[in-house]
Specification:
78% helix, mainly alpha, 246 residues, globular, single chain
Length: 246
């Protein structure tokens, strides 16, 4: 029997989803802080966040079981790098939010296709084998990049405010939760649906916190919003470690 102690991925609980949402919000605000507030640009932002992602991913791959601090550092790294990748595709390559979203969606579907072809499932629990874990993190990176592009698509292409975009994606997440509890739809499908849509919620909510008031934001600043998100994440990671020891 496979136990939680030999799983490389966090247990899918309410705490997992709360941490995922905060991590995606942090990824948006921190990514914007690096590329926009510090004015380093998207290419440099990709380089910085890409190196951080590779470092924490290599550490994650070395462990044989789930380590909350390492696992969530990789999640944060994917959301931050995803922000830079999405903005680079949309703004530096001038593909726009629609084509950028479609390109990243294709990357996610392709990754999931190879995953299913190799393992005949898309289950994230348990993940023990290194090749499967690499596919998992590739899918996570694509999904978080896609979420950023889709969040920007809601605001810039459709014309919704940041708050409206956050509310719409939050409503989709609520619908997925209701489908989970009140229907017999495939749980793995619902997991990936929720996993993808928590990212645009974090992206639009992060923009709502940091963008100027004239643009529909609260103008809290990318650094301040990032620090608050880091503080909240540290508290939840602490509780994750406490739960792991029970």
């Amino acid at each position: 029997m496979v136990t939680k102690t030999i799983n490389k991925v966090a247990e899918i609980t309410l705490l997992f989803w709360l941490m995922k949402i905060v991590a995606t919000t942090l990824g948006e605000t921190l990514g914007d802080f690096i590329s926009m507030t510090l004015n380093l640009g998207y290419s440099t932002g990709i380089l910085i966040t890409g190196i951080f992602f590779l470092v924490v991913l290599l550490i994650q791959l070395k462990y044989k079981n789930y380590k909350p601090i390492i696992f969530w550092l990789v999640i944060i790294a994917t959301t931050t790098l995803g922000t830079e990748i999405s903005d680079f595709i949309d703004r530096s390559l001038h593909l726009g939010y629609t084509y950028g979203s479609l390109l990243l969606f294709f990357g996610l579907i392709t990754t999931l296709y190879f995953w299913f072809k190799k393992y005949n499932n898309l289950n994230v629990s348990p993940i023990i084998e290194k090749n499967k874990e690499i596919l998992f993190w590739t899918a996570v990176l694509f999904s978080n990049s896609l979420g950023t592009a889709f969040g920007d698509y809601l605001g810039d292409a459709i014309g919704l405010s940041y708050l409206q975009g956050a509310l719409i994606t939050a409503a989709i997440i609520v619908i997925v939760v209701l489908l989970h509890y009140f229907t017999k739809l495939n749980e793995v499908f619902l997991f990936w649906l929720a996993f993808v849509f928590t990212r645009p919620f974090g992206a639009t909510f992060g923009d709502f916190l940091t963008k100027p008031i004239a643009k529909g934001g609260l103008d809290l600043g990318t650094l301040q919003a990032s620090l608050v998100s880091v503080f909240i994440m540290l508290i939840m990671i602490y509780f994750s470690h406490k739960q792991l020891k029970k």
